[in-house]
Protein backbone atom coordinates (compact mmCIF):
# COMPACT_ATOMS: atom_id res chain seq x y z
CA UNK A 1 0.00 0.00 0.00
CA UNK A 2 1.28 3.39 -0.87
CA UNK A 3 1.83 5.91 1.83
CA UNK A 4 -0.08 9.08 1.16
CA UNK A 5 2.18 12.01 0.66
CA UNK A 6 1.09 15.37 1.77
CA UNK A 7 2.42 18.08 -0.44
CA UNK A 8 2.62 21.51 1.05
CA UNK A 9 2.84 24.36 -1.31
CA UNK A 10 4.56 27.30 0.18
CA UNK A 11 3.29 30.38 -1.47
CA UNK A 12 5.15 33.59 -1.28
CA UNK A 13 2.46 36.22 -1.20
CA UNK A 14 3.36 39.86 -1.40
CA UNK A 15 1.30 41.65 1.16
CA UNK A 16 1.05 45.23 2.14
CA UNK A 17 -0.34 46.65 5.32
CA UNK A 18 -2.67 49.57 4.90
CA UNK A 19 -2.44 52.33 7.50
CA UNK A 20 -5.01 52.07 10.28
CA UNK A 21 -7.25 54.31 12.32
CA UNK A 22 -8.34 52.53 15.49
CA UNK A 23 -11.00 54.24 17.63
CA UNK A 24 -10.21 53.80 21.33
CA UNK A 25 -13.85 53.07 22.11
CA UNK A 26 -13.55 49.80 20.17
CA UNK A 27 -11.12 48.28 22.67
CA UNK A 28 -13.16 46.66 25.39
CA UNK A 29 -12.09 44.99 28.59
CA UNK A 30 -12.50 41.38 27.46
CA UNK A 31 -8.79 40.83 26.99
CA UNK A 32 -5.80 41.66 24.88
CA UNK A 33 -6.36 42.47 21.19
CA UNK A 34 -3.70 41.74 18.65
CA UNK A 35 -4.00 44.45 16.01
CA UNK A 36 -3.78 42.82 12.59
CA UNK A 37 -1.97 44.23 9.56
CA UNK A 38 0.54 46.29 11.46
CA UNK A 39 3.99 46.41 9.91
CA UNK A 40 7.12 46.18 12.03
CA UNK A 41 8.79 49.57 11.71
CA UNK A 42 5.50 51.46 11.51
CA UNK A 43 4.78 54.39 13.81
CA UNK A 44 1.85 54.56 16.21
CA UNK A 45 0.27 57.92 17.09
CA UNK A 46 -2.49 58.88 19.48
CA UNK A 47 -4.95 61.65 18.64
CA UNK A 48 -7.05 62.13 21.73
CA UNK A 49 -8.48 64.64 24.13
CA UNK A 50 -9.42 61.89 26.55
CA UNK A 51 -8.23 62.24 30.12
CA UNK A 52 -4.88 60.71 31.06
CA UNK A 53 -6.77 59.17 33.97
CA UNK A 54 -8.30 56.75 31.43
CA UNK A 55 -5.48 56.70 28.86
CA UNK A 56 -3.09 55.34 31.50
CA UNK A 57 -5.31 52.26 31.76
CA UNK A 58 -4.74 51.37 28.10
CA UNK A 59 -1.62 49.41 27.41
CA UNK A 60 0.20 48.92 24.10
CA UNK A 61 2.75 46.14 23.78
CA UNK A 62 5.34 45.77 21.04
CA UNK A 63 8.76 44.16 21.00
CA UNK A 64 8.19 42.79 24.49
CA UNK A 65 7.77 46.27 25.99
CA UNK A 66 4.58 47.86 27.16
CA UNK A 67 3.63 51.49 27.45
CA UNK A 68 0.43 53.14 28.55
CA UNK A 69 -1.32 55.59 26.26
CA UNK A 70 -0.93 58.63 28.49
CA UNK A 71 2.76 58.54 27.50
CA UNK A 72 1.79 59.10 23.84
CA UNK A 73 -0.58 61.92 24.77
CA UNK A 74 1.82 64.79 24.27
CA UNK A 75 4.32 66.55 22.07
CA UNK A 76 8.07 66.56 21.54
CA UNK A 77 10.06 69.78 21.89
CA UNK A 78 9.59 70.49 18.16
CA UNK A 79 5.79 70.13 18.66
CA UNK A 80 5.61 66.87 16.72
CA UNK A 81 3.39 64.34 18.47
CA UNK A 82 5.10 61.63 20.53
CA UNK A 83 4.92 58.33 18.67
CA UNK A 84 5.86 54.71 19.24
CA UNK A 85 7.83 52.60 16.76
CA UNK A 86 6.25 49.18 16.27
CA UNK A 87 8.92 46.51 16.70
CA UNK A 88 7.08 43.31 15.81
CA UNK A 89 3.42 42.96 16.67
CA UNK A 90 1.09 45.39 18.38
CA UNK A 91 -1.35 44.43 21.10
CA UNK A 92 -3.78 46.59 23.01
CA UNK A 93 -5.39 45.90 26.36
CA UNK A 94 -7.44 48.06 28.67
CA UNK A 95 -8.45 47.98 32.29
CA UNK A 96 -11.06 50.68 31.78
CA UNK A 97 -14.53 49.26 32.18
CA UNK A 98 -16.65 49.18 29.03
CA UNK A 99 -18.73 52.19 30.05
CA UNK A 100 -15.59 54.31 30.23
CA UNK A 101 -14.19 52.76 27.03
CA UNK A 102 -17.33 53.54 25.08
CA UNK A 103 -17.01 57.22 26.00
CA UNK A 104 -13.45 57.61 24.74
CA UNK A 105 -13.25 59.88 21.70
CA UNK A 106 -9.63 59.41 20.68
CA UNK A 107 -8.07 57.34 17.92
CA UNK A 108 -4.86 55.45 17.34
CA UNK A 109 -3.20 55.97 13.98
CA UNK A 110 -0.73 53.43 12.59
CA UNK A 111 1.36 54.37 9.54
CA UNK A 112 3.18 51.95 7.26
CA UNK A 113 6.91 51.34 7.63
CA UNK A 114 7.57 53.27 4.41
CA UNK A 115 5.73 56.27 5.81
CA UNK A 116 7.53 56.02 9.15
CA UNK A 117 10.88 55.96 7.33
CA UNK A 118 10.05 58.84 4.97
CA UNK A 119 11.56 62.12 6.20
CA UNK A 120 8.99 63.96 4.07
CA UNK A 121 6.04 62.30 5.80
CA UNK A 122 4.90 64.01 8.96
CA UNK A 123 2.02 63.73 11.37
CA UNK A 124 0.38 66.47 13.42
CA UNK A 125 -2.14 66.13 16.19
CA UNK A 126 -4.30 69.21 16.57
CA UNK A 127 -5.50 69.93 20.08
CA UNK A 128 -5.42 73.67 20.15
CA UNK A 129 -3.43 75.48 17.50
CA UNK A 130 -0.42 74.46 15.51
CA UNK A 131 1.91 76.08 13.06
CA UNK A 132 2.67 73.55 10.38
CA UNK A 133 5.75 73.93 8.23
CA UNK A 134 6.06 71.74 5.17
CA UNK A 135 8.89 71.78 2.71
CA UNK A 136 7.55 69.00 0.56
CA UNK A 137 5.85 65.69 1.05
CA UNK A 138 2.81 64.68 3.03
CA UNK A 139 1.52 65.88 6.37
CA UNK A 140 -1.26 64.01 8.10
CA UNK A 141 -3.36 66.22 10.34
CA UNK A 142 -5.25 64.33 13.01
CA UNK A 143 -8.19 66.07 14.61
CA UNK A 144 -9.16 65.62 18.19
CA UNK A 145 -12.55 66.10 19.76
CA UNK A 146 -13.83 69.66 19.88
CA UNK A 147 -14.08 71.05 23.33
CA UNK A 148 -15.96 72.49 24.95
CA UNK A 149 -19.02 70.91 23.44
CA UNK A 150 -21.44 73.79 22.98
CA UNK A 151 -23.97 73.12 20.25
CA UNK A 152 -25.85 69.91 19.72
CA UNK A 153 -25.24 70.16 15.95
CA UNK A 154 -21.60 71.15 16.12
CA UNK A 155 -19.20 68.80 14.36
CA UNK A 156 -17.61 66.24 16.63
CA UNK A 157 -14.17 66.91 15.23
CA UNK A 158 -12.99 69.66 12.98
CA UNK A 159 -9.92 71.64 12.03
CA UNK A 160 -9.65 75.16 10.77
CA UNK A 161 -6.79 76.04 8.46
CA UNK A 162 -5.71 79.63 8.23
CA UNK A 163 -2.78 81.79 7.20
CA UNK A 164 -1.41 79.58 4.43
CA UNK A 165 1.89 80.96 3.23
CA UNK A 166 3.00 79.33 0.06
CA UNK A 167 5.64 80.12 -2.53
CA UNK A 168 4.44 80.77 -6.07
CA UNK A 169 5.67 77.49 -7.47
CA UNK A 170 4.32 75.36 -4.61
CA UNK A 171 1.19 73.27 -4.98
CA UNK A 172 -0.78 72.29 -1.89
CA UNK A 173 -3.42 69.57 -2.06
CA UNK A 174 -5.88 69.09 0.77
CA UNK A 175 -7.19 65.56 0.96
CA UNK A 176 -9.56 63.76 3.26
CA UNK A 177 -8.86 60.39 4.85
CA UNK A 178 -5.40 59.04 5.58
CA UNK A 179 -2.69 58.30 3.01
CA UNK A 180 -2.86 54.70 1.81
CA UNK A 181 0.18 52.40 1.64
CA UNK A 182 0.73 53.47 -1.99
CA UNK A 183 -0.20 57.12 -1.41
CA UNK A 184 2.53 58.46 -3.66
CA UNK A 185 1.66 56.46 -6.73
CA UNK A 186 -2.14 56.43 -6.94
CA UNK A 187 -4.67 59.16 -7.41
CA UNK A 188 -7.18 58.28 -4.75
CA UNK A 189 -9.51 61.10 -5.84
CA UNK A 190 -9.79 62.47 -2.33
CA UNK A 191 -8.58 65.99 -2.95
CA UNK A 192 -11.15 68.50 -1.73
CA UNK A 193 -9.15 71.65 -2.18
CA UNK A 194 -6.05 72.61 -4.08
CA UNK A 195 -3.98 75.76 -4.12
CA UNK A 196 -3.41 76.95 -6.85
CA UNK A 197 -6.93 75.90 -7.73
CA UNK A 198 -7.40 73.48 -10.56
CA UNK A 199 -10.91 74.06 -11.81
CA UNK A 200 -12.52 71.49 -14.00
CA UNK A 201 -13.84 72.96 -17.22
CA UNK A 202 -17.29 74.41 -16.70
CA UNK A 203 -16.92 74.65 -12.95
CA UNK A 204 -16.35 78.34 -13.30
CA UNK A 205 -17.36 80.65 -16.13
CA UNK A 206 -16.79 84.30 -16.27
CA UNK A 207 -19.55 86.20 -18.01
CA UNK A 208 -17.76 89.22 -19.39
C1 LIG B 1 -16.53 52.27 35.47
O1 LIG B 1 -15.40 52.97 35.99
C2 LIG B 1 -15.73 54.25 36.50
C3 LIG B 1 -14.43 54.97 36.83
O2 LIG B 1 -13.54 54.12 37.50
C4 LIG B 1 -16.66 54.09 37.68
O3 LIG B 1 -17.00 55.38 38.19
C5 LIG B 1 -17.92 53.38 37.23
O4 LIG B 1 -18.75 53.12 38.35
C6 LIG B 1 -17.57 52.05 36.57
N1 LIG B 1 -18.76 51.50 35.96
C7 LIG B 1 -19.03 50.20 35.99
C8 LIG B 1 -20.30 49.78 35.32
O5 LIG B 1 -18.31 49.41 36.57
C1 LIG C 1 12.22 64.83 0.58
O1 LIG C 1 11.99 66.06 -0.05
C2 LIG C 1 13.16 66.68 -0.55
C3 LIG C 1 12.78 68.05 -1.07
O2 LIG C 1 11.78 67.97 -2.05
C4 LIG C 1 13.76 65.79 -1.62
O3 LIG C 1 14.96 66.37 -2.12
C5 LIG C 1 14.07 64.41 -1.03
O4 LIG C 1 14.52 63.53 -2.03
C6 LIG C 1 12.83 63.83 -0.38
N1 LIG C 1 13.19 62.62 0.32
C7 LIG C 1 12.56 61.46 0.11
C8 LIG C 1 13.08 60.31 0.91
O5 LIG C 1 11.62 61.33 -0.65
C1 LIG D 1 2.29 80.45 15.00
O1 LIG D 1 3.04 81.45 14.36
C2 LIG D 1 2.53 82.76 14.58
C3 LIG D 1 3.30 83.73 13.72
O2 LIG D 1 4.67 83.48 13.78
C4 LIG D 1 2.64 83.08 16.08
O3 LIG D 1 2.10 84.37 16.33
C5 LIG D 1 1.84 82.05 16.86
O4 LIG D 1 2.01 82.26 18.25
C6 LIG D 1 2.29 80.64 16.52
N1 LIG D 1 1.37 79.71 17.14
C7 LIG D 1 1.78 78.59 17.73
C8 LIG D 1 0.73 77.72 18.31
O5 LIG D 1 2.95 78.25 17.78
C1 LIG E 1 -9.95 58.46 -9.81
O1 LIG E 1 -10.77 59.05 -10.83
C2 LIG E 1 -10.37 58.68 -12.15
C3 LIG E 1 -11.21 59.50 -13.13
O2 LIG E 1 -12.56 59.58 -12.72
C4 LIG E 1 -10.53 57.17 -12.31
O3 LIG E 1 -10.11 56.80 -13.60
C5 LIG E 1 -9.67 56.46 -11.27
O4 LIG E 1 -9.88 55.07 -11.34
C6 LIG E 1 -10.01 56.94 -9.86
N1 LIG E 1 -9.08 56.37 -8.93
C7 LIG E 1 -9.47 55.75 -7.81
C8 LIG E 1 -8.37 55.20 -6.97
O5 LIG E 1 -10.65 55.64 -7.50
C1 LIG F 1 -14.51 74.17 -21.85
O1 LIG F 1 -15.89 74.56 -21.94
C2 LIG F 1 -16.20 75.46 -23.01
C3 LIG F 1 -17.66 75.91 -22.82
O2 LIG F 1 -18.49 74.86 -22.40
C4 LIG F 1 -15.92 74.76 -24.32
O3 LIG F 1 -16.18 75.65 -25.40
C5 LIG F 1 -14.45 74.35 -24.38
O4 LIG F 1 -14.18 73.61 -25.55
C6 LIG F 1 -14.10 73.46 -23.16
N1 LIG F 1 -12.66 73.22 -23.14
C7 LIG F 1 -12.15 72.03 -22.96
C8 LIG F 1 -10.65 71.97 -22.93
O5 LIG F 1 -12.83 71.02 -22.80
From TrEMBL:
Source organism, top-level taxon: Eukaryota
Q: Which GO terms describe its biological process?
A: innate immune response
Q: Which key words are in the record?
A: Signal
Q: Signal peptide span per the entry?
A: 1-17
This entry carries the following GO cellular component terms, namely:
membrane raft
The keyword Signal is assigned to this record: yes
**What is the official name of this protein in its record?**
Uncharacterized protein
- Species, as recorded: Caenorhabditis nigoni
Gene name?
Cnig_chr_V.g17422
Amino acid sequence: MRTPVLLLAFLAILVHADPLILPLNKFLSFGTSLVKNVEPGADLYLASKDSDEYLKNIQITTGGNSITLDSLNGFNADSSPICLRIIDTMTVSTTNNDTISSWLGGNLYVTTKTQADDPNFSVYVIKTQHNITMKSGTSVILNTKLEPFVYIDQPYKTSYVSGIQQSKDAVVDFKWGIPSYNWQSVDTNNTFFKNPMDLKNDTYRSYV
